[in-house]
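Moderator note: this is an archived Q&A kept for reference. The question asked for a predicted structure of one protein chain; the sequence and the answer are reproduced below.
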Amino acid sequence: MNGAARNWAAATRPKTLLAAVGPVVVGTGFAFRDGGEHLVWAVLALLTALLLQVGTNLHNDWADAHHGADGADRTGPLRVTQTGLLSSKTVLRAALAVFAAAAAVGVAGTVRGGWPIAAIAASSVAAGVAYTGGKRPLGYRGLGDIAVLLFFGPVAVGGTYYIQTLDLTPTAALAGLGPGLLATAVLVANNLRDRDSDAQVGKRTLAVRFGARFARSEYTVAVVVGVALPTLLLATSGYHPWHLLPLAAAPVALRLLARLWRGADGAALNPLLAGTAQLLLISCALTCVAAIASA
């Protein structure tokens, strides 16, 4: 891989793409359980989710550099705009192009799903831009956690379920809270790591507002509930042994919690971020298998 390709790969933040894949996997599993699976539209939902995540990552790279959030003392992974590896204008143009592609795929989805799919696509693009863009970015006001919970949770899972089944059950919508909470845990670990540098540039995340202990507690609740919730929701249709399968992710979750509460901080939290993203995908895959197997 040449230098330019490495820079663009870094800008897309490949490890975070697991957070986009997981909700689509869960939504498809529940659609299969309810007899409404449609793999062509599941692939379309996955493509849309990936484009939205890449667009958000690129826009975040540009916006954080613009706001001064990615300084020289940054302990997280490389940011291509702040380091000058790619020009600010180039990264912004790429972000907008990817968002446009996501919107185009979303418009194609309206052929099947109508206005609900159009609303999901439009609000998702808007949230991706508003997360770090504009005069009052969500991520700078402590609202990023809520945005991630909703858009990586009920919105993504519900949208995936709806475009396949043309329906939305309460159970399928609530199932989105599992990946939504685990995606929030990824964000919390990121904000815990960056709280000092964020505070210096006025980025008022919850970790900045309420401190490290609050952030560790928030992470713990998000992980524990996120891992346990799928089993509880699957069991609402009556007990089946497969419903216990999502709990197989618990050992991974416990290892991450042990690392967190042993005092990991700063750059030492980078492996926790990667591990939490992996936990999200593991939990979502197990939930999907459990839903299909218990159909």
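Archived answer notes: The radius of gyration is 19 Å.
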